[in-house]
Amino acid sequence: MINYIRKLPTAYRLAVLQLSVILLPLGLSAQNRLNDYISQGLASNQSIKEQNFLLKKNIYALQEAKSMFLPSVTFSTTYTKADGGRTIDFPTGDLFNAAYATLNQLTGSNSFPQLENQSILLNPDNFYDAKFRTSLPILNAELVYNKRIKAQQVDLQKAEILMYKRELVKEIKTAYYSYLKATNAIRIYQSFLKLLEEGERVNRKLFENNKINRTAVIRSQNEVSKINASLTAAQKTEESARYYFNFLLNRPLTEPILTDDVPLLPAQDNLLLNEVNGREELAKLEIAKGINKNLTGLAKSYLIPKVGTSLDLGSQAFDWKFNQKSRYYLLGVSLEWNLFSSGRNSYKIKQAIASEQAVSAQTNHVTQQLLTELNVRRANLQSALAQYQAAQSQLKTSQTYYNDMTKLYKEGMAIYIELLDAQNQWVDAQLQSNIALFDTWISLTAIERANASFNIQ
């Protein structure tokens, strides 16, 4: 084969060597750049940032729930200015004036003045009340369940973020392999185009020397035009793949993508993981089940009385007086117990229990759904591997056929149409092999998503 290639014209030799390089197994270097891109995507994705803000919100809500067990201090004050309204009549003069007059006669003085009947205003006039109130719950089951629910909502949001990240990883890897598929197709078309252009040049020289008829020249020109069109389409596909990949990383759409060598076939270790226990969807349902259980407990908490205590330190007096007599303290203990509510509490309990049962049923359904998805993904990967093996076999056959036809054509034992047919079969086999290779990687990425086997930092 090597001796045969050496006998070909220089341009032919270059084209064959370029095509052969494409068909060699790609290097086994680690995909460090892809991992870097995944890290970039996880750090810059706007949807994940939004979910992180929601996580912070839930964390603050949990801290708020915890603070409800601590003392709270409030300051309040009231000032009352009143005139008119209800009064209390007190007959001061009628009660004391006769006695005072007798005392004045006995003492020979006016030491006991005459009094007027009083009309006392019920509304306090020019009166203030200012106080600091410290409250502390001693027994409150609602606060306990509320704290538990808030903590579970934090876990629920963490699972939501992890699910977003896992889906983003799948999209980034799929877009990356789609981009590699397009760039490899471009290289195949470019190399084949050089081969066709050289064939067109040779055919034109042969036609000018009356060695062949015009048909071979026209067919050569048509094949060059067809490959040029295919090359343009592949370039547009590569451009679209680059745009989408950069969109996932939240960076300029036209920014170039640096790629690593991809192993010829992916490792199939993940095929052995036939379980979906690591899926965030199931984790969310388990957390939701716990939340509903606590909601049931919250609905039943009316059976436990609420006990609290409060302490008021303040001052109240008329005319803004502040002294030893105006200052006061008031210590109180409160108890609240819901004894009867016309069945509202029992209905709340039944609703919470129904929600628990609904989540349990949903968990069973989702588990079967995820297992079905995993099995479908595994079947797709097996199919992609079979397609790749078939494409490799076809590639070897078409390459041998092309080499044989090239030799026959140079010896004048085959017409150009037969050589062209061999060339087309060869390039089609290369394209199909390229497609099958990266479809295999994309299928593996889908399995990583289906069984949650990709390790997200």
Structural account:
- With 457 residues, this protein is α+β, with helices and mostly antiparallel strands.
- It has two domains: 2-69 and 141-302 and 347-450, Outer membrane efflux proteins (OEP) (Up-down Bundle); 83-123, no CATH class.
- It is built from ten helices and six strands; from the N terminus they run ααααββαββαααββαα.
- The strands form two sheets. A four-stranded antiparallel β-sheet has the order 1-4-5-6, with no helix packed on it. A two-stranded antiparallel sheet has the order 2-3.
- The longest helix is centred in the middle third of the chain and has 68 residues, at 141-208.
- One of its GO terms (cellular component) is cell outer membrane.
- One of its GO terms (molecular function) is efflux transmembrane transporter activity.
- Belongs to the outer membrane factor (OMF) (TC 1.B.17) family.
Number of strands: 6
Query: So, CATH architecture of the largest domain?
Result: Up-down Bundle
Beta-strand residue fraction: 5-15%
What CATH calls the topology of the largest domain is Outer membrane efflux proteins (OEP)
Category from helices, strands and their pairing: alpha+beta
